[in-house]
Amino acid sequence: MPLALVLSSTVLLGGCGLLPGGEDRRTVTVWLMKGSASPEFVERFTADFEKEHDDISLDIRVQEWNGITTKVKKVLKSSDGAGPEVIEVGNTQVAQYVEQGGLYDLTLESARDFGMDDWLPGLAEPGRHDGAQYGIPWYAANRVVIYNKDLFAKAGITRPPRTRAEWLAATQKLNTGGDQGIYLAGQDWYTLAGFIWDEGGDLAAETKESSGDWRGSLHTPAALRGMDFYQRLQALGRGPRDADEEHPPQAGVFAKGDVAQIIAVPGAARLIEEKNPALKGKLGYFPVPGKKAGEPGAVFTGGSDFVVPERSDDHKGAVAVIEALQGKKWQTDLARTMDYVPNKAKLAPAVSGQEGAAAMAAGAANGRATPNSPRWAAVEADNPIKGYMSAVLMGGDPAAEARKASDRITKELGVGSV
Q1: Which end of the chain is more exposed for a tag (fewer CB within 10 A), N or C?
Q2: Is residue 283 within 8 Å of 145, Cβ to Cβ?
Q3: Is the Cβ–Cβ distance between 76 and 98 less than 8 Å?
Q4: How far is residue 297 from each of residues 7, 170, 173, 284, measured CA to CA in Å?
């Protein structure tokens, strides 16, 4: 990850400068999050944008993720319009900012200028509220299957599985001797979410009768089918049933060389190779398989959206910056620089030469986000999904445990019980 930086164009007296010939430039301030873009990308973009827009100077300031929610909410409440014109936020954070108020409605620009019909749903949907688009997709990242090519060859598996059924069969074949077919921790709830979505279920659903009325839905038949598949897959390895993928970090477990597969973002390969250089060049990637060949499974889409404060002094300048950053030229550059998934499926060829990013892009076409409730963060703070998963994996009744977890989710989202 790059160190915190503040890259700004020529310092401007009183917020304005002078171009040769006496023309005024106005400053557009952009907040980007630490690690989202390299310093070199920011430099390239700034130079190109200012060349194309001779009336705008960019002031790009990198922010820390820790504490950013408080800072953004303060900007949105401000009445003086002195804050940034463009803010990068996590895609699942948009809902809470919409609930507070203070975001500029970008629906018109999205339809007219940004090509919103082609956006990845896992980025676009969290930025939408009551039919209005407030968050503009920037980049995505999601989990893929990272596998040990040597262990696949040893088991006689010549190509990655294309369906869930093939995946189970291959993993069972790999789970022999001292090798684990897959290392899957018991509380990897993002992975479970994908299996639930594949079955047509969800973690929570908004009722049709009342907008904003969210209820936990882990107890539905579709969600239970997703948990059943997770249970069968998790049993084909020795992952802990009462811990998540970071306890212990699964990259370190995989690096020991006796694990055939993990489910992680492609960037985990760097950590694996650092811990065990002998695995360099021996790692492969494929999208999480779906129920049918040619249709990757659903995955949680993480990433970032851009938002604009309603009280910003320069909506026109903000839109110009977003239009450039979310457009084909800079989407392609960012994806290749950072191994991200571009914001539109049709731009996936930009990373076709990078195996991990290409697998991620294939899966992103069927990406989803967590329930778009402004209170979802409260669910994750003391996550009942994790406890539910462990209880089932340790022999608890799936239907009974799921109903208890659904009840807790419903209460956290502000309603009574299911």
Answers
A1: N
A2: no
A3: no
A4: 39, 17, 21, 18
In this prediction the pTM is 0.85
Q: Are 94 and 305 in contact (CB under 8 A)?
A: yes
d(CA 408, CA 32) in angstroms, rounded, equals: 35
CA distance 346 to 361: 10
Phi and psi at 49, nearest 5°, equal: -65, -45
Per-residue model confidence as pLDDT tens for the chain (418 residues) = 333 333 333 222 233 333 443 358 899 999 999 999 999 999 999 999 999 999 999 999 999 998 999 999 999 998 777 789 999 999 999 999 999 999 999 999 999 999 999 999 999 999 999 899 999 999 999 999 999 999 999 999 999 999 999 999 999 999 999 999 999 999 999 999 999 999 999 999 998 776 779 999 999 999 999 999 999 999 999 999 999 999 999 999 999 999 999 999 998 998 999 999 999 999 999 999 999 999 999 999 999 999 999 999 899 999 999 999 999 999 999 999 998 999 999 999 999 889 999 999 999 999 999 999 999 989 998 999 999 999 999 999 999 999 999 999 999 998 555 5
Measure the CA–CA gap between 151 and 155, rounded to whole angstroms. 6
Q: For the chain, how big is the Rg over CA atoms in Å? A: 23
Three-state secondary structure of 224-274: HHHHHHHHHHHCCCCCCCCCCCECCEHHHHHCCCCECEEEECCCHHHHHHH
Query: What is the token pair recorded at 27?
Result: 């400053």
Q: What is the DSSP string of 272-337?
A: HHHH-GGGTT-EEEEPPPBSBTTBPPPEE-EEEEEE-BTT-S-HHHHHHHHHHHTSHHHHHHHHHH
**Where do we find the tokens 């669910």?**
379
Contact 101, 311 (CB under 8 A): no
Nearest Cα to Cα of residue 122 among 109, 112, 108, 137: 137
Pairing of strands 367-368, 302-307: unpaired
To which residue do tokens 């903000």 refer? 318
Alpha carbon separation from 412 to 212, 215, 216, 373, 384 (Å, rounded): 13, 9, 9, 10, 10
d(Cα 269, Cα 316) in Å, to the nearest integer?
Answer: 41
| Count of residues in the chain | 418
Give the residues across from 128 on adjacent strands.
133
49: tokens are: 């944008």
Contact 88, 369 (CB under 8 A): no
